[in-house]
Amino acid sequence: MRGEIMEKTEWLKKAAQSILDADEELAKDIAQKSLEAGMDPLEMINHGFSEGIRKMGDLFDRGEVFLPGLVVASEAMVAAIKILERALPKEEQDRKLGVIVIGTIEGDIHDIGKGIIVTMLSVHGYEVHDLGRDVPIENFVTKAKEVNADVVGASAMMTTTQIGQKKLEEALKAAGLRDKVKTMVGGAVATDHWAKRIGADFYGESPQDTIEKLKEILK
Amino acid sequence: MNAKERVLAILNHQKPDRMPCFGANSTVTYDQMENVQAFWPQAHENGEAMAKQALAAHQLLGFDAVRVPFCQTFEAEALGCILKPGGSDGIPGIDPPPPYEIGDTPVLPDDFLSRGRIPELLKAVGILKKEVGDTVPIVGGIIGPFTIAGALLETVPLLKASFKTPEKMRPFLEVAESAGTALAQALIDAGVDIIACEDMTASPALIAPPTYRDFELEYQKRQFGAISVPRILHICGNVDLIVEWMGQTGADILSIEPKTNGKLAREKCGSDIILMGGVDTVTTLYLKDTVTVRDECEKSIADGIQILAPGCTVAPGTPTENLVAMVEVAKAH
After folding, report:
1. Closest Cα of chain B to A100: distance in Å?
2. Residue B33 DSSP class
3. Which of A41, A96, A186, B127 would disulfide-bridge A127, Cβ 3.0–4.6 Å?
4. What pLDDT digit, counting tens, does each position of B87-131 carry?
5. How many CB atoms sit inside 10 A of residue A98's CB?
6. CATH 3.90.226.10 holds for A2-93
7. Which of B89, B159, B281 sits opposite A71 (nearest CB)?
8. Which residue of B160, B241, B315 is in closest CB contact with A159?
């Protein structure tokens, strides 16, 4: 029994470390071998790999890891989780914390930060509909209706596209959706102040911050 | 002193009659477009419209220089990237797919300088030279190696390469540096007095500082070493972590955002470097009033700024009065 617990802790530690090392091949290998060793895939995701990306997010927030490291680590995470998900029972695969529609405002072709948020939301159990970059306002509204979204998120990286986040608030109101969905804004030019000013529900400063605020707002 | 004498005085480490004020990046706004009756997208594509729009910075705002172009896509387009038009409200960008993948060998075309909109850009410089060349300095914009490489590969693959296989970035940085340097030389031949190099992707907001030190610094040194007129280096965001190396590139002027610690920049780069900056373009210039703009300018000057400037590219919806307020602060120093 004691040996089993030791072994379990060891697998979870190894999984987290492979993400901290941003080593995709190693992460995939650990995911596969942990299944063969009889580890619970859900536990590997939630307490192993997720722990790694959470720590990576903290290091990023503290300025000890930079964007390239976070991008590569989150790709390693996705690759490992793909392997583990195939081993999950059907009902676990379908279990979702909420439905999120997300995209980068039209005119904006920068979507690195949004890509990381999409990965993080997916691995935390949200159903994410990523509209990509350079997305016209009406597409956010149409998609939110179609998938019955709980949250609509818009990212803007440039001063010239930031105003689109305000237009999105107005478009959701006009479509009668605003009281049905929560809205979040993000991106290089967004701030808490800006979110309040345009009436968005919250500003996600970093991946970690977004996950925490989402949990709170969807309670 | 006229604007040219004023800016030259600063560059020669002499005391000007007052502090100069101009942008290292584009300062075009919708208000200015209306005022001079030159609009987007024409001013991104046509030499006459471009020159007309550039003049507004001096004639309408009272800035101490005029600057072309207003977007960051001239080199990338001429190197084979797909141009995404910005329409009447926005600036042109680059559309996927990118022309190269990491591992490819990019090439600088022989006819680089006659490709895309570069001939129109050079034409605009010629017009500006004739119109105001004797009294107002002309700033010609080029794009830094890392940022051009980001267009050739798309930013995410470049960032991943910077982490996983950094040596594979070199051929791209080589071509990107040669392209920017060739454009700089053509701009100088056409009549610009100052070269401003924008290198957005080299910011610590995107790449790790050691990547800047171990890769970009070498190419920027080479580029600035080949440019015979004064050089401005602009990198967006908070550059505290790389400012020491920015000071080693050979740039005469560093253009920094208020997020960057001006005192630290001075400490790390020494007394010869000229610091340019002053006001945050989004949270202050675009969203706030003239009182806030003035306060932020004064604070930046206290931190060692010698040329007052918007911290980055001005949002086109920025009110004219906020830009004019900057000139008024400069006049009092």
Report:
1. 23
2. H
3. A96
4. 998 899 999 899 999 999 999 999 999 999 999 999 999 999 999
5. 18
6. no
7. B159
8. B315
| More confident site: B35 or A211 | B35
Question: CA Rg, chain A, in Å?
Answer: 18
Strands B93-95 and B82-84: antiparallel
- Nearest CB among A69, A112, A189 relative to B163 is that of A69
- Which chain A residues touch B91 with a CB distance below 8 Å? 160
Q: What is the ipTM of this complex?
A: 0.90
Question: For residue B205, is pLDDT > 80?
Answer: yes
In 3D space, the residue among B272, B317, B302 whose CA is nearest the CA of residue B89 turns out to be B317
**CATH of range A96-217; options 3.30.530.20, 3.40.50.280, 3.40.50.720, 1.10.10.1800:** 3.40.50.280
| pTM listed for this prediction | 0.89
Instruction: Please report the DSSP string for chain A in residue order.
Output: -HHHHHHHHHHHHHHHHHHHTT-HHHHHHHHHHHHHTT--HHHIIIIIIHHHHHHHHHHHHTTSS-HHHHHHHHHHHHHHHHHHHTTS-HHHHH--S-EEEEEEBTT----HHHHHHHHHHHHTT-EEEE--SSB-HHHHHHHHHHHT-SEEEEE--STTTTHHHHHHHHHHHHTT-TTTSEEEEESTT--HHHHHHHT-SEE--SHHHHHHHHHHHT-
- What structural domains and CATH numbers belong to chain B? 21-331 (3.20.20.210)
Would you place residue A161 in the very low, low, confident or very high pLDDT band (cuts 50, 70, 90)? confident
pLDDT value of position A2: 57
* Of A148-157, B226-235, B267-276, B319-328, the least confident: A148-157
Q: Spell A100-116 as b/e; 16+ CB within 10 A means b.
A: bbbbbbbbbbbbbbbbb
Please determine, for residue A90, whether its predicted confidence score (pLDDT) is greater than 80.
Answer: no
Residue B104 tokens read as 């490819």
Render pLDDT for A96-130 as a digit per residue (tens, 0 to 9). 889 999 998 876 556 677 888 888 888 778 999 99
Q: To probe the interface with A, which of B95, B146, B160, B168 has the most A CB atoms within 10 Å?
A: B160
Cβ contact, residue pair A68, B90, below 8 Å: no
Question: Cα-atom radius of gyration of chain B, to the nearest Å?
Answer: 18
> How close does chain B come to A63, measured CA to CA in Å?
9
Sketch the domain layout of chain A as residue ranges. Answer: 2-93, 96-217
CA distance, residue B191 to nearest chain A CA (Å): 30
